[in-house]
Amino acid sequence: MPAPxxxxxxxxxxxxxxxxxxxxxxxxxxxxxxxxxLTDEDAEGRALFQKWCEAxxxxxxLDEMGNMFARREGTDPEALPVYVGSHLDTxxxxxxxxxxxxxxxxxxxxxxxxxxxxxxxxxxxxxxWTNEEGTRYAPAMLSSGVFAGKxxxxxxxxxxxxxxxxxxDELERIGWKGTEKVGERKMHAMFExxxxxxxxxxxxxxxxxxxxxxxxxxxxxxxxxxKESHTGSTPMAMRRNAGRxxxxxxxxxxxxxxxxxxxxxxxxGHIDIYPNSxxxxxxxxxxxVDMRTHLLDKLNGMVEEFNARAPKLCEDxxxxxxxxxxxxxxxxxxxxxCVAAVRNAAERLGYSHMDIVSGAGHDAxxxxxxxxxxxxxxxCVDGLSHNEAEEISPEWAEAGANVLMxxxxxxxxxxx
Length: 416
Hints:
Blueprint: H1 12-23, H2 40-55, E1 59-62, E2 68-72, E3 82-86, H3 100-116, E4 119-120, E5 124-128, H4 142-147, H5 153-157, H6 167-173, E6 189-195, H7 200-204, E7 208-214, E8 216-225, E9 229-230, H8 242-259, E10 264-274, E11 280-281, E12 284-293, H9 296-316, E13 320-329, H10 336-349, E14 353-358, H11 363-367, E15 373-378, H12 394-412, E16 414-415
C-alpha cells in the first residue's frame, strides 16, 4: 500500500488547543485533572468529544459499556475499519495528557484528512474506551477487557466503587449506556497514542517510542501472620513479627526484579498492617506484590522464585506465609505489521525513535488479542504520570500525533 507523503502533518496548534479545552473539564486541585470514570465530569468530557466528532462529520456509536466509536466512512463499504483511540477518564489526581492525547490525537487525524480532502479505503473510527484507569472501578482497562472477551459484561456492571455504587447503575445515570452489544465490532487494526509514563524516551533524547510489547503482570496478594504482642515488653528472641516478614519479602521482590534485568520490575504497593498501633508488634500484614516484564517465561520464572523463597523467609523468623494471584495478564507482543507502520512513519517524518516496552497497561493490550494492534509513545517530563504535575511539550504531542496519523492512514489506505 502506498505510504503517505512526508508533508502530511496534523495541525499541532489545534491539537494542543483541544487538549487544553478538554482539561478545563474536571480540573484538579494542582493543575491536572480529576475526571474519574462515570462521574458527571466524565459525562461532560464525553459530550464535548461527541460535539467535536459531529462537527468533523463523524457518526457516533455507543456500546453497552459506554465505549464511544466515532466513524469516518471509507470508500469501500466492505472494508473493515481502522480504529484509533485511548481513554478520556483520569486518575483522581491525574494529568491532562494520559489517555486524552490518544483520543484527541485520533480526532486530529480526522480533522486533518477533512481539511485536505483525503479519502481512505477503510473507515477510520476514533475510540474512547470506558474506565481504562480502574481507579474508581477495578480492574483497569475494564471495558476494553469486556470488548476483548476477558471479562463478562454483567460482571463488569456489578463492580462497585468505594461508596458502593455499581458500575452499571452509574453508567446509566450519566446517560452513556448504549445498546450496541460489546465486542461485535470487527477491526482491520487499532493504533493507540500515549505518553510514555516513564523516563526512558526523555533520557535517551528520542521523539518517539515504537512500542513492540506490553508488560505482562502478576499481582500476588500475600498474608504474613505472626502474633500481636507489646513492643516494649516482648523479648526480641520471642517475637513473631509480621512486619519483619513484610520487610524481608520487600527486599526479596527487589532482588528478584534486579536479577531479571532488563525490562523487569517488582514492588509492593498496597500494604495493610494489623492492628496498626504504635506499641503493638504487628500480628498480620496483608500486601500485594506487583511483578511485570514483557517476556512470559521470565515473568513466570520470577513468580516461581518468589513462591519458592517467600515461605522459607517467613518460616525462618517464626511467622506464617500464604499468597494468591489476584490479578494477571500475559505480556502482549504487538502486531509486527502495525509496529512496522509506526516505525516507518517515524523514519519517514524524520523523528528520532527507539523500540520500547510499555511499562503500564493500556486498552491496546486487550484489543491486541482480537485485532492487529500497535502503540506510539511520546516522552513526558521526568517520566511523571498519574500525577497532576504530568507534563509534555506541544512539540512532543505533535510528533506523536503525526506518527500516529501516518501509521493509521497507511493502514487505512489513501484513495488517489
